[in-house]
Design the sequence.
């Protein structure tokens, strides 16, 4: 399945990243205009056309300051987004000495393809998940949960790392971080507006009476301003939903191309399925993970395809074998003795991998696999044309 680093997908992500930044500035200008319209409606008694013209003039005057503020926001997010994500997830950078198994798996993958090795982070959590972050080659990092290391064997962990390396190579990570920046900026300003509004009790302070201030087009202008803010807030959410879910199919395929092991990617997805919720992580962070178990509504608002469809794609296009949903045994405690009385094997640096001994649970009716057109396969990867 030749899908790792599809050049058309990479170019598309670059264009989308630029479009997302432009969208951020436009939405900020919409919020500034809404604020100016509200301020004019509360300060003068005039018809709607006059209020809107004055608000537009205010926007033109405030545009340089709004642009500067947005640029500062982007710069802060560029340099400190990793620190903010680490604060939410508890990610800690690790070295070979700290996590030799994990470090060696990632290093071997990178060496085998001659790619720069991203930083490696570990977060202590029973959740089974991983995600990549960063905006540039120097910033890229892959964060893995301790739960994933404990429950997946080496081949499965390697497949997950290959999945995240594909996201980095394809530009998905940069695009998702920009989308998070947009959502954060718009949410901040929208929430600030409504908090100020509610703080003042919907009241209007000044010399005029309430009836005078609400006369003319003031009431309608305020309604329009509120509607603009709501639209901007909703659009910041829709922007993330508009990001193509095909990136997950391509990352799965890229992992298979890197590791040459479709069965490991399939079993990794089956073990991660429904077990990836990170406590304390925002929805934006979960959207960057291998799987996002918080989604619903029949995939309508999902940022990830269902695991069933991803597995079906790997079976159909990569020749993998689906064991069905995998039931993992409970996480053993340190002082717990196996039922047969035998001493439990000594755990590795991050516990004993679950391996492939977990039984398959009763499977639900699988979703149909995606079509080749949906995945948009190609004959060339980032390492050159594929040879038969």
Sequence:
């Amino acid at each position: 399945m030749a899908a790792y680093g599809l050049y058309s997908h990479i170019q598309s992500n670059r264009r989308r990243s630029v479009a997302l930044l432009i969208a951020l500035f436009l939405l900020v200008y919409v919020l500034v205009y809404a604020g100016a319209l509200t301020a004019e409606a509360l300060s003068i008694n005039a018809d709607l056309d006059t209020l809107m013209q004055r608000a537009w003039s205010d926007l033109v005057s405030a545009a340089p300051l709004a642009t500067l503020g947005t640029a500062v926001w982007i710069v802060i997010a560029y340099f400190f987004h990793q620190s903010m994500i680490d604060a939410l997830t508890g990610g800690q950078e690790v070295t070979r000495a700290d996590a030799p198994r994990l470090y060696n798996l990632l290093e071997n993958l990178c060496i085998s393809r001659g790619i720069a090795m991203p930083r490696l982070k570990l977060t202590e959590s029973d959740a089974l998940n991983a995600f990549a972050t960063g905006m540039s080659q120097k910033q890229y990092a892959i964060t893995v949960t301790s739960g994933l290391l404990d429950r997946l064997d080496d081949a499965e962990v390697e497949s997950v790392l290959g999945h995240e390396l594909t996201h980095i190579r394809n530009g998905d990570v940069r695009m998702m971080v920009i989308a998070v920046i947009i959502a954060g900026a718009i949410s901040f300003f929208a929430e600030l507006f409504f908090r100020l509004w509610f703080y003042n009790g919907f009241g209007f302070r000044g010399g005029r009476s309430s009836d005078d201030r609400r006369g003319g087009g003031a009431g309608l202008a305020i309604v329009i301003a509120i509607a603009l803010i709501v639209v901007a807030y909703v659009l910041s959410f829709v922007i993330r939903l508009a990001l193509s879910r095909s990136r997950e199919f391509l990352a799965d395929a890229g992992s298979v191309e890197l590791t040459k092991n479709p069965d490991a990617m399939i079993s990794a997805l089956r073990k991660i399925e429904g077990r990836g919720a990170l406590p304390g992580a925002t929805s934006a962070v979960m959207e960057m993970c291998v799987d996002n178990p918080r989604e619903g509504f029949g995939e309508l608002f999902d940022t990830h395809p269902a695991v069933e469809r991803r597995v079906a794609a790997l079976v159909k296009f990569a020749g993998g074998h689906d064991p069905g949903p995998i039931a993992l045994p409970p996480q053993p405690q340190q002082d717990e003795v196996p039922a047969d009385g035998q001493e439990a094997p000594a755990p590795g640096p991050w516990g004993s991998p679950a391996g492939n001994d977990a039984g398959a649970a009763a499977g639900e009716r699988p979703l149909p696999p995606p079509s080749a057109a949906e995945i948009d396969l190609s004959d060339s990867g980032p390492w050159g044309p594929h040879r038969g």
In short: Residues 7-90+173-241 form one domain.
